[in-house]
């Protein structure tokens, strides 16, 4: 088996995996959630890098020729170092791709006012990865960023549908939109956030377009595989998906089954 590896700090990458499976229904996938060490968004650069590298190495050991960092925080803090420094020493024929670059490439065509809002983890906002990539790939666009440190813990603790979620989602939406009423496009720059989509839609100003990072990343992967037929051929096509978590499988399976609308049976893995 040589599945596509999909990595996130926890449950968030499932929002990307869902769209990847739709785009590549025949491919095998191996999902890894580092739930025991989530959230990553408030952790240091060094820790996010170390944890992400451990996860990538594990997915490579499991046979993945290609790993998607379905996590903005890991993409912001670890992707470049892994691509430019580590990959050559591990296996130069394997690939690791992130989610920020494809998202930024989709922005220019999505906004009419040129004002885009970004919700992300404190780590992603502080890294300024979106600002840097937008300046390069969508130079006419201004991005207004706001960190939402409570949103990932709400998801990881199965509180995404609770009243507490309304309180924090509304508070952060007001903080971003009230001073910036021109924003017409919103990036959910953390893969956990679509799990809060019902709450976000309820509080976001009317007419604001919310970009679906899952669809964008899936389209970008299809394009990548078309341009790299050698990698395309290496991916096994058994239409399977397996799940690994660093936490207890019971906790993972409950939320993951609900979100994936599938009977998820994960196994525990120890990283590091
Ligand atoms: N889902 C991840 C992201 O896209 C990380 C969330 C976290 O662990 O803080 O940023």
Nearest-angstrom radius of gyration?
Answer: 18 Å
**What's the N-to-C terminus distance?**
23 Å
Instruction: Kindly report the oligomeric state of this protein.
Output: single chain
Structural class: alpha/beta
Strand proportion, as a percent range, falls in: 15-25%
3D architecture notes:
Helix content is 47%, strand content 16%. With 272 residues, it is an alpha/beta fold. The strands form 2 sheets. It has a 6-stranded parallel sheet, sandwiched between helices. Strands 6-5-7-8 form a 4-stranded parallel sheet, sandwiched between helices. Helix 13 (249-260) links the parallel strand 9 and strand 10 (267-268). Helix 2 packs across helix 4 and helix 5 packs across helix 7 (129-137). It is globular and about 50 Å long. The site of D-glutamic acid has 17 residues, from helix 3. D-glutamic acid binds at residues 8-10, 12, 38-41, 71-73, 121, 124, 152, 190-192.
List keywords for this structure.
6-stranded parallel beta sheet, binds D-glutamic acid, 4-stranded parallel beta sheet, 13 helices
